[in-house]
Amino acid sequence: MRGWKECTRGGGVCLYTYDLSDLEHALRVAVAHAFVLIMAVMVFVNVLVYVCMHPILWFLRVPQEVMEEMQQSVMNFGILMVQGLVNSFGATTMAAFAAAVKIDTFAYLPVQDFGNAYSTFVAQNYGVKDYGRIQKGTKEAFAISIVFSIIISILVCTFAASLMEIFVKAQETAVIACGVQYLRIEGSFYCGIGCLFLLYGYYRAINKAQMSVVLTVISLGLRVVLAYILSVPLKAPGIWVAIVNHKNLKEI
Q: Would you say 234 and 30 are in contact if contact means Cβ atoms under 8 Å apart?
């Protein structure tokens, strides 16, 4: 049998040991295929949004308040579906996910507030038609957000276990290990999340909030589909990868 090695002992006893190298190789191949799939989906969505955005936005000519309610409803629905999938992996994964999400949300909260400040800056200059200042400020805003996000990513990835112990007892090693895995996968992409909040702030500032609704619907749909697909070969890490994909697809 593949992966099993025969080990003969004295007295006619024959034992079999399992070689984990084949399993590790299969896991690396599965992860590589998963990221290729994500990149292919991102390209597809990019083309889809480019081709269909204008008719979709024309169809969605409704008040901004209704747009925001639609976006919130879609987000909650997607979160519930992903949470249901997480729950299917047992209490350990559920506990790790609950704790890690709190840390994750707190970690990128500063860049979210920075996006709100950037939105105010763009709105003021958009009103007076000072587009040159918007362009200059946008470059500086993205540079600051990316540098700050890299620092946060390094801190979260380095101290992931210590951060998990704030919410989980040190004796619950399985929960901590699962949470660390989540934080290191998610934390590696905080740059994308920082840019995402800037883009949202920009569209709000130029009175095109409906753009975020369209992107939310598309990206959340892909998030749920990819979570269910990737969780088969990768188990819980497949869900974490799908969540990263959802966050970064919204930037397209």
A: yes
Cα distances (Å, whole numbers) of residue 190 to 110, 183, 201: 11, 11, 17
Alpha carbons 202 and 123: distance in angstroms, whole number: 8
Question: Under the phi-then-psi rule, with left for phi > 0, alpha for psi from -120 to 50, and beta for the rest, what region is 235?
Answer: left
Q: Is the dihedral of CA 44, 49, 51, 55 positive or negative?
A: positive
H/E stretch holding 154: helix 131-158
What are the distances in angstroms from CA 34 to CA 23, 104, 188, 239?
A: 16, 22, 16, 11
d(CA 162, CA 10): 47
- How many whole angstroms separate alpha carbon 122 and alpha carbon 137? 8
Per-residue pLDDT tens, the chain, 252 aa: give them: 444 444 544 555 454 444 545 556 566 656 655 655 655 555 555 555 545 555 555 555 656 566 666 666 666 676 777 888 888 888 899 999 999 989 988 888 888 888 889 999 999 999 888 999 999 999 999 999 999 999 999 999 999 999 999 999 989 999 999 999 999 988 888 888 888 788 878 887 887 766 666 666 666 767 777 888 888 888 888 888 887 755 544 444
Q: Which residues of 141-180 are buried (b: 16+ CB within 10 A; e: fewer)?
A: bbeebbebbeebbeebbeebbebbeebbeeebeebbebbb
41, with CB counted inside 10 A (0-12, 13-18, 19+), is: middle
